[in-house]
Amino acid sequence: MDPSGGEIAVEILPFIRTYKDGRVERLLPTDIVPPTLDPTTGVTSKDVMVDRETNVSARLYLPDLASLGPSQKLPILVYFHGGGFCFGSPFWTLYHNHLNSLVAKANVVAVSVDYRLAPENPIPAAYEDSWHALQWVVSHSEGTGPDPWLAERGNLSRVFLAGDSAGANIVHNMAMRAKARIEGVVLVHPFFWGSERMGCEKDRDDKPLLDPVTTDLVWPFVCPGAAGSDDPRLNPMAKGAPSLAGLGCARVLLVVAERDLLRDRGRAYYEALKGSGWGGMVELFETKGEDHVFHLFESGCDKALELFQRLAGFIRRE
Predict the structure, then answer these.
(1) pTM above 0.85, yes or no
(2) Which residues form the active site (predicted)?
């Protein structure tokens, strides 16, 4: 029993707790910041409504235009935040700062998607919202569309998808669904899982941010009644999953961290993609000595800056 008197239904510590009376308690502090002109990077942001029916919105980012030509077009980056499909927000300080840095380094117009969260909105809500946001982005054309930043500055022939953890999982599922207009995808510490333990998921002496027992709880919580941890949306390498040869992009950057519980799932995805017959180019980048999404919490450290440079270089084709 909870001291407040409510009976706990599900608890996934230290992230979220639900009660049998329907209450949902998200346990990690998430300070929300408004859009603004960032004085450090010169990046400007604003919030837009993507779908009024579902109340899905996004935060848009535009780099400092002082050094750009008056009609210069920029790549478009559609970003999906992490948080196990049940917490997190593009308006959270961690993600707002991350996008400011990434937009400045990569010189892109970015769209950070505020998809609906489980358990109030179970899977597939996050996927459907993300797909609608992507369709909203590509509905723009030169000089026309719902948003002037995308219409006037976005290069619709150079669209990228990126995300971390559950957001990287969303990126994979969007790329499997997409058939055109995506140049590249970036999967940072992707949340892939399965019923069979592999590699670093077994017999850990250290204490990574994620642990197998807790991770086993996430998918049934956000997607009740589904096919379990071998659902192809969660385990792209599961028996019977759609072939990765159908990935709808030309380039992939797969990022893993040495101490991350999800590391070997990411490595397995990299090998499976290379062997699938997919005709694109895939790169694997591993950060030594670091854990899951370390770059969000230690954004100023040398390894985080190295990661930012790698992401930006991928978009700039360096």
Answers:
(1) yes
(2) 165
